[in-house]
């Protein structure tokens, strides 16, 4: 059984929040900021990892400094949803490093991909030589990001019993 959000206490939420801000914090620093001793802090951290609340650690890289000047949101449509084409498409997308995320959608498109490319020419080649060749793809519609206003993978972590800020309720 997957642990529920309600299984988290305020200290767990604070620990997760600190790690979202800086995944390189040492156990000693975490413990200090949480007013815990190191052993209970380490146990909490290992429990949160084991229960799947923490899925991994990675550095946040600057895509533009690394030469990826194009960020595109790509709507992919399928002609037919029967057979193994959707599964084969999903498996193939997993292996394409330019695809940062892939979501199966309701509505007009079947999938929404977030894709990076160095420039428009390389993006066009990627569409032609990679995406159009994937199983089941019948239509591709792109929206290019003109300016990134906000980019975050941090989740809102309200304390138990608190409403999330800005949820309008």
TrEMBL record:
SMART domains: HTH_ASNC. It comes from the Bacteria. InterPro entries: ArsR-like_HTH, AsnC-type_HTH_dom, Dimeric_a/b-barrel, Tscrpt_reg_AsnC-like, Tscrpt_reg_AsnC/Lrp_C, WH-like_DNA-bd_sf, WH_DNA-bd_sf. Residues 8-69 form the HTH asnC-type domain. Keywords: DNA-binding, Transcription, Transcription regulation. Pfam families: AsnC_trans_reg, HTH_24. CDD domains: HTH_ARSR. PANTHER family: LEUCINE-RESPONSIVE REGULATORY PROTEIN, TRANSCRIPTIONAL REGULATOR AZLB. This is Lrp/AsnC family transcriptional regulator.
